[in-house]
Amino acid sequence: MPRGRIGTIITVLVAVASLSVVAVMVETVRMAYRDAEYRAEREGLGLLQASESYIASRLRVWDLALEMSVDLVQDPRFSSTPVADKNALLANLASKISFIGSLLVLDSNGNIVLDPLSPQPRLGNFADRDYFLAQKPRDAGLYISQPFRSRLRNNDPSIGISRRISNPDGSFGGIVLIAIRLNSIRDLFSSLDPGQRGSITLFNAAGRVLMRQPSLDGTGDTDIDLSSSSTFARMLQERSGTFTAVAITDGTERLYNFSQIPGTDLFMAVGLAWNDILSGWWFRLYMTVAFTLTLCLLALVVAIRLQRELARRERVENELAKLARTDPLTELANRRVFDESLEREWRRTKRTHKELSLLLVDSDHFKQVNDRHGHTIGDRVLKKIGDVLARHARRAGDLAVRYGGEEFAMILPDTPAEGACKLASEICQAVEEETGHMTSLSQACTVSIGVASSHAHVATASQLVKEADAALYLAKEAGRNCVKCFEPPLKGTAFPAT
């Protein structure tokens, strides 16, 4: 072969190899860009879900406190209660709730009539506030105010949530107000990391900022008006989604994940700055150009190791999530799962109008078993009770849980009281029989069971739990090893285990 032709072939091969390397570099850079974008979307969505879930859960707690306070104030007996006792009742309720700046009861003129969180009763009129005006002509339900500077707490940035107090004739009787310190929300946002130039913003449908972190003014940018921004207009129209825009507050281009907090006019937005998202991508681009194929191979190794690490972390997180929802001794679901499942089934019951039954199960004389036979045998008894409950949770929707200590619970969807009581009696009998076969025990262990079912008088899931607990108390009073079913007014009907 002529030398010139060999040289041409070598040149062509080098050119092809070079073009291949260039093609690999271009594809690698393109894929790196897409990977950075995808990870940024996932990261932003994770931050959004975490912050939105926290705010939504806080709102539910605050609203529940408002509803309980309104019910208390509207109770005819409350009006004859001394003011000090009224404040004590409301203060006890508020002490269980975080982030509250003030809990106030205002009369129909906007004057403070109860101020349970202040050592000395304060005077003030708030008839000009929107949280008062919105409730005056009609019941506005849960009303979330525009941000304001508190007159009672040295201009502390706050929002107010209120519910209407109605007189017996339906006329306006005032409001119950909870003032929320926005600085406490800022502390939450400070614990989240949207990157060096990223942002987390809570705002309302009027375009008013409640809290932004990091803030331009160092205090949360409270009350900045976003209503003229095209970014805000898009969020208001779409309600949830992802898009890229330039912020009017600081001119930074960000990838926004946003959504409206359900049941409110509040929005949460997490913006990750593209400079932060692509910082690693630019570095990879420069190094790829400088070191060509070597860097491409190194990037591949790094990507493989990264994927393996992510897969390992995912396995660990899945295992931790499973452990967080399971009682390690009985392998039943734990209290956390119970609370979530009961709320879910309660909402479904309200939609379908089918009965939901709840069993509360308590081991009789369990302390004596521990004292006499030791904690190891006591654990075996609890495991045996858990096994019995698990076997009797026969349907897909039935859920047996360890409620705490020697207490267990069972949620029975679509189950009337008669069926629940019958099942409870079977459980009593099974526990007595199976623990009677344990050679390490001198006698069989028994359980007492309280049963409650959702009827028209049951307003909330927590009331259902209270009624089951009351029935369990009657079962204990009746001599244990029996079933008591709640019937309003509480009478209880015994269902012996044998």
From TrEMBL:
EC number: 2.7.7.65
Sequence ranges assigned to domain GGDEF in this UniProt record: 354-488
Single GO cellular component term: plasma membrane
Highest taxon above the source species: Bacteria
PROSITE patterns per UniProt: GGDEF
Molecular functions per Gene Ontology: diguanylate cyclase activity
Membrane topology classification: Multi-pass membrane protein
Subcellular location: Cell membrane
Transmembrane segments: 6-26, 289-306
Main localization (coarse): membrane
Signal peptide: none
Keyword set, alphabetical order: Cell membrane, Membrane, Nucleotidyltransferase, Transferase, Transmembrane, Transmembrane helix
One Pfam family named in its UniProt record: dCache_1
Biological process according to GO: cell adhesion involved in single-species biofilm formation; negative regulation of bacterial-type flagellum-dependent cell motility
Full protein name: diguanylate cyclase
Species classification: Bacteria, Pseudomonadati, Pseudomonadota, Alphaproteobacteria, Hyphomicrobiales
